[in-house]
Design goal:
Blueprint: H1 2-20, E1 28-35, E2 45-46, H2 48-59, E3 62-73, E4 76-86, E5 92-104, E6 107-114, H3 117-123
Parallel strand pairs: 1-6
Antiparallel strand pairs: 1-2, 3-4, 4-5, 5-6
């Protein structure tokens, strides 16, 4: 049960900061891996710095977010995040993102996300 508590605390810290777009980085492991956004390229972004860059770009598209559901099983977790997106073309859309997490040694070590990539593709200029 100890792992569930620490995983929950890590995720609460992450999402509290993520919603404010600051203060979430402290719980990310240096060797963090991230997969998401492109079903045709399953290669992860590796490293904390690489993930911070991904989030810098992603943060430009959402105005606010909230956790709808969080299921934790030891060091594994699934979160449904609900986001209010505003795209560069002016389109405002509310959408959910499924976020699959792993924690280890007091840090979040990986994230894999699933969402409607077609909506992003249609609303972000090339």
């Amino acid at each position: 049960m100890k792992n569930s508590t620490s995983t929950k605390q890590l995720l609460e810290t992450y999402y509290h900061g993520f919603a404010k777009k600051e203060g979430w980085e402290s719980v990310i492991a240096d060797d963090f891996t991230f997969i998401g956004g492109n079903m045709t390229n399953p290669e992860p972004a590796v490293g904390k710095a690489a993930y911070i860059e991904v989030i810098k770009r992603f943060s430009r598209t959402f105005q606010s977010m909230r956790v709808k559901e969080m299921i934790i099983d030891g060091s594994n977790a699934c979160v449904t995040g609900n986001y209010d997106f505003v795209f560069p073309n002016g389109a405002a859309i509310n959408g959910d993102v499924a976020e699959i997490w792993k924690a280890k040694d007091g840090k979040l070590i990986s994230l894999r996300i699933f969402f409607d990539t077609l909506t992003f593709d249609k609303n972000i200029p090339k």
